[in-house]
Amino acid sequence: MLLHRPQLPAPDTKAGLTVHWARHQDEVRAAQRLRHAVFVGEMGARLPTPLAGHDIDLFDDFCEHLLVRDQATQQVIGTYRVLTPAQARRVGGTYSDTEFDLTRLRAFRERMVELGRSCVHADHRHGGVILALWRALGDFMSRNRLDTMMGSASIPMCHLGVAGGNAAASIWRQLSAMHLAPVQYQVQPRLPLPVDRLDSSLQIEPPALIKGYLRMGAWVLGPPAWDPDFNSADLPMLIRIDDLPPRARRHFLER
User: Fold this and answer.
1) Model pTM?
2) Which domains does the chain have, with CATH numbers?
3) Which residue has the higher pLDDT, 15 or 73?
């Protein structure tokens, strides 16, 4: 599959940001350092890595890596990685396949990308960085005639001061009431978070990334998996371009 992506950085001068796809290994390493700083340094993940200070796994070599830089410092402050259908076939599946049985998504596979390892530097967590990432993703999807995005959105096991997975169980209860996918597209976790044994009665705000996905018309595909390495509950989510609400469509597909 021929990937169509910008060859040069795309500046967002109002926000002081530059957005581009990694073109060589040094740029991928910069994304992996940011991921390590966020996931290990902030969230306490325990990740095996062949290179100290970097979050690296076997999927990285098969993914496209999207970077947002601070124009003034050229520091990478935001990243996503994208696994296309062709590359998923090469590596033998998606990262999400290791966490969930995705059999019911087979109808989407040929035009579905997996989004993963989304993170933003702690000093830059404002809407501009996420919006810049999503606009570049929208352009990528349109250029490559892809129409579905899926991935896992993580909820820390201690979220907003609520420990023991109770926050994740409560968020799952809230979202499943309004945003659950039709049964024919629901998936099952391979290592389920034991939501039935947790307190799911709490009124807790989901993480910002999940709220952003919901504003884009995302489906929640099923109950969360427990990821012991990241010490998080991972909620499977799917977004269809055709289902984008009008406002999200303007932001996501804006040229």
Assistant:
1) 0.91
2) 10-252 (3.40.630.30)
3) 73
